C-alpha cells in the first residue's frame, strides 16, 4: 500500500535453527506420553498439574533454567469441534522465540500453522498493539508458501476493514488496489465521477453522488491464460443509510461496509501470490452512501447498466445497487465463474450469526466443492437458497425490480435474487458476509476479518479445473 495506508507486517515461517519443540498432547494421551519421558519432565508436568486440556500451556525448563520444551494441551476431539485455530491460543502466550510443532496429526497441521501465523497480526496504525512474538517453523508436510499467502491475504483484508472511513474512502481503496496490482504485475483501470454516467454505470453514480469523494468503479486484471474468474466486491466505504438514515448505533460499524471489497482483495492477493493458472478480474464499485441535497431518494426509479429499472424503496439498501452495475459489467466479459462478496444484509447475520459466511449458487458441483474446501481451510460457510418463489417479492410492478421489498421476510435471499438478475446466464456465486469479529477468538482479534476467501481458494481447482 501507499505511505498513507501501510502494508500489513505479518511474519512468515521461521527457519529451523534452535527451534523449541511444542509437544501437542491430547487429553487421553497424556499418561502414555509422560510415561515415556525423562523423569524430570514427568515430575515437572505432574507438579504443575498439567492435564492437557485444550489451550493449556506448560513451559518446561532445561537444567540451566532455559526453555527446553513446551507442552500444549489439545484437549478432546468433541471440545475441539467447537472452534478452530486452537494452537493460536498457545502461540499468543509464548515468549519470543522460534518453535516447532511435535505430536500434531498431519491433517491438523495446515490449520494450526495458519492460526499460528495469524497471531502475528495486530492493527496498530493508530495505537501500538501487542503482536504475537512466537515464530513457527513450517510443520512437515504442509505447503508453507500457500499458508503464508493465505495469512498475508487475510492481513490485507483485516487492515482494509479496520481502517476508518476518514482514511479508507473510495480514493484510498483505489490506492490500495493499485498498490496490490503493482506488487503482482496486474493492471488497473478506474472510472470515476461523472464519467460513470458516460460509461453507463448509473447505479454506482447514483449511490455515491452525494459524497464529497467521487464514486468509482475499480477494475483490476491479472493473468493471461486459463479460465476467467471475476470477483466483485462491495466497496461502500461508509454507509449512513442515505436519506433513510441509520440510527447512531447501527452506523457505528459502517466503516466495514466495504468488507466485500476487502475480502476479494485479500483473495486476489492469495491467488496472485500463488500464481494460480487463471485469469483474474476484480471489480469494486467504491462509493460512500452520504446525505446531501443531491442524494438519491425513496421512490426514485433508475435504469441500470443492464437496462432493468429499479425502484428505490430504501436508500439503505444501496449495496445491491452498486453491485448490480458491476455484475452486469463483469458478465459482459463471459467469465467462467463470477463471485460477489458483500456485507449486504442484517438478515444473513440473524440467520447464521457472525462466524458463518452464507453463500448462494445454482451449481451443485460448486456447492459441494466449496463445502468440502471450507472444512479443509478452517473457513466455515453455509449454503442458502436462490428460492424461486420469492422472485415475486422483488418485482414492485412500477419498475422491473424493488431494491428493498416490504415485509422483512427472507432479506438475504431476496437480495441474492436481486443480484442474480444482473449476473444473467453467468455461472455465479454470491457471499453475504459480515466481515467482523465482534469478540476476540483464537487467531481472530476483535475487528475486521475475512470470510469465505480461503474456502473459495481451496475450491477453485475443482471449480475451474486448474
UniProtKB/TrEMBL annotation:
Sequence similarity: Belongs to the peptidase M17 family.
Gene Ontology MF term list: manganese ion binding; metalloaminopeptidase activity
PROSITE patterns, per the entry: CYTOSOL_AP (PS00631)
A Pfam family recorded for this sequence: Peptidase_M17_N_1
PANTHER family in UniProt: LEUCINE AMINOPEPTIDASE-RELATED, PEPTIDASE B
CDD domains in UniProt: Peptidase_M17
Boundaries of every Cytosol aminopeptidase domain copy: 314-321
One of the GO BP terms on file: proteolysis
Record's keyword annotation contains Manganese: yes
GO cellular component: cytoplasm
SUPFAM superfamilies xrefs: Zn-dependent exopeptidases
Keyword Protease: yes
This protein's name: Cytosol aminopeptidase family protein
Sorted UniProt keywords: Aminopeptidase, Hydrolase, Manganese, Protease
Amino acid at each position: 500500500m501507499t505511505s498513507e495506508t501501510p502494508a500489513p507486517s505479518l511474519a512468515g515461517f521461521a527457519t529451523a535453527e534452535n527451534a523449541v519443540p511444542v509437544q501437542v498432547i491430547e487429553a487421553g494421551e497424556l499418561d502414555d506420553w509422560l510415561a515415556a519421558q525423562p523423569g524430570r519432565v514427568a515430575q515437572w508436568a505432574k507438579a504443575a498439574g498439567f492435564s492437557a486440556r485444550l489451550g493449556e500451556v506448560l513451559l518446561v525448563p532445561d537444567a540451566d533454567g532455559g526453555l527446553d520444551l513446551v507442552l500444549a494441551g489439545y484437549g478432546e476431539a468433541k471440545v475441539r469441534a467447537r472452534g478452530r485455530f486452537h494452537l493460536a491460543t498457545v502461540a499468543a502466550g509464548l515468549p519470543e522465540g522460534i518453535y516447532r510443532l511435535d505430536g500434531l496429526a498431519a491433517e491438523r497441521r495446515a490449520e494450526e500453522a495458519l492460526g499460528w501465523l495469524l497471531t502475528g497480526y495486530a492493527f496498530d496504525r493508530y495505537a501500538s498493539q501487542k503482536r504475537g512474538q512466537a515464530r513457527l517453523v513450517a510443520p512437515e508436510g504442509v505447503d508453507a508458501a500457500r499458508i503464508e499467502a493465505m495469512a498475508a491475504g487475510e492481513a490485507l483484508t483485516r487492515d482494509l476493514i479496520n481502517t476508518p472511513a476518514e482514511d479508507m474512502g473510495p480514493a484510498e481503496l483505489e490506492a490500495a488496489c493499485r498498490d496490490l496490482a503493482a506488487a503482482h504485475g496486474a493492471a488497473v483501470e478506474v472510472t470515476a465521477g461523472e464519467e460513470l454516467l458516460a460509461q453507463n454505470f448509473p447505479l454506482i453514480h447514483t449511490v455515491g453522488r452525494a459524497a464529497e469523494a467521487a464514486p468509482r468503479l475499480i477494475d483490476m486484471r491479472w493473468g493471461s491464460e486459463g479460465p476467467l474468474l471475476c470477483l466483485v466486491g462491495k466497496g461502500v466505504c461508509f454507509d449512513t443509510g442515505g436519506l433513510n438514515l441509520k440510527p447512531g448505533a447501527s452506523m457505528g460499524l459502517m466503516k466495514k461496509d466495504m468488507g466485500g471489497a476487502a475480502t476479494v482483495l485479500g483473495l486476489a492477493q492469495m491467488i496472485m501470490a500463488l500464481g494460480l493458472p487463471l485469469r483474474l478480474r476484480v471489480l469494486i464499485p467504491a462509493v460512500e452512501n452520504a446525505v446531501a441535497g443531491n442524494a438519491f431518494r425513496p421512490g426514485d426509479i433508475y435504469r441500470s447498466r443492464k437496462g432493468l429499472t429499479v425502484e428505490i424503496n430504501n436508500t439503505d439498501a444501496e449495496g445491491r445497487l452498486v453491485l448490480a452495475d458491476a455484475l452486469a459489467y463483469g458478465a459482459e466479459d463471459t467469465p467462467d465463474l463470477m463471485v460477489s462478496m458483500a456485507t449486504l444484509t442484517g438478515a444473513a447475520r440473524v440467520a447464521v450469526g457472525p462466524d458463518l459466511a452464507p453463500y448462494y449458487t445454482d451449481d451443485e458441483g460448486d456447492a459441494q466443492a466449496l463445502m468440502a474446501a471450507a472444512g479443509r481451510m478452517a473457513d466455515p460457510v453455509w449454503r442458502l437458497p436462490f428460492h424461486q418463489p420469492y422472485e415475486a417479492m422483488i418485482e414492485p410492478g412500477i419498475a422491473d425490480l424493488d431494491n428493498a421489498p416490504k415485509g422483512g421476510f427472507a432479506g438475504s435471499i431476496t437480495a441474492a435474487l436481486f443480484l442474480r438478475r444482473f449476473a444473467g446466464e453467468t455461472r455465479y456465486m454470491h457471499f453475504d458476509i459480515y466481515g467482523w469479529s465482534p469478540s476476540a477468538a483464537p487467531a481472530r482479534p476483535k475487528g475486521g476479518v475475512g470470510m469465505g476467501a480461503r474456502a473459495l481458494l481451496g475450491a477453485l481447482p475443482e471449480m475451474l479445473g486448474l
